[in-house]
């Protein structure tokens, strides 16, 4: 009888795919690699903070005028952000519903706020691991089942944003920048490709490299798109959330006398969200501001003022996240620490 080794030539194709994926990612777990990445992350964070301080000093007069705006303006901005935060929580909850898990809204908002706040402080994306831990501890939903569907949803959202950017660019009107036309075209056509790949029954399992691994990872996503009710609810919440984000950016720009149309604000917001998919910097600092500056120049606007509007939005975001986390996270920590007491 032949001795079959999961890592040998006689292994099943799925086992070879998973073993190959493990070998490709195992080096990331080495201590010196983790320490190096963490050190590099915080060095980058220090550079970004220094650049922001210098930018603030150069635009101090504008910042002072922004700070003099009435309190109701900031309250409206905070209200819009909190509504978008609730939508972000429900976005994840609908994904968990595909596996039969239902989350209280209070827990959902606490998880979302603390995860987003953690993105400003820790390397990588902290929101997804935190929510996965909660689902496994409280609802018994394995992270191996939830993380793949969440990642597939992120990819689909990125594609949908790309399609929306292409359509909005048609409505915004002609822009003379060649670079702008190239970027929006790439987003539009690339978005269509991503959406079709995740909606159509593409045979990922037949791919020669990691095909079966990808196919297995998409099992949860197929559960979502098989339910019209769940998929429709998820898409509706995503549309509302994107609309709230665009409205917040547009409203703050108008409050600070920046002549930005809603279509332009929506394009900037959607492309910024796409650029934050990998979160290469703390809180996406630098990446988001670069996107805002690029499109401001393409639209013939003052790039520094657009970036200041974005930074003002970050201030609103951090304050809201801190308050919500401080109010709701203590009870959630007790629930995660002792899930049996809540059942």
Rounded to an integer, what's the Rg over CA atoms? 22 Å
Mean pLDDT: 82
How many domains would you count in the coordinates? 2
N-to-C series of helices and strands: HHHHHHHHHHHHHH
Count of alpha and pi helical runs: 14
- Which spans have pLDDT < 50 for at least 5 consecutive residues? 1-9, 11-25
Structural description of this entry:
The chain has 343 residues and is mainly alpha-helical. It folds into 2 domains: 58 residues, no CATH class; 274 residues, no CATH class. It is 76% helix and 0% strand. It contains 14 helices and no strands. α13 runs antiparallel to α14. The N terminus is likely disordered.
Task: Summarize this structure briefly.
It comes from Bosea vestrisii. The protein has 343 residues and is an all-alpha fold.
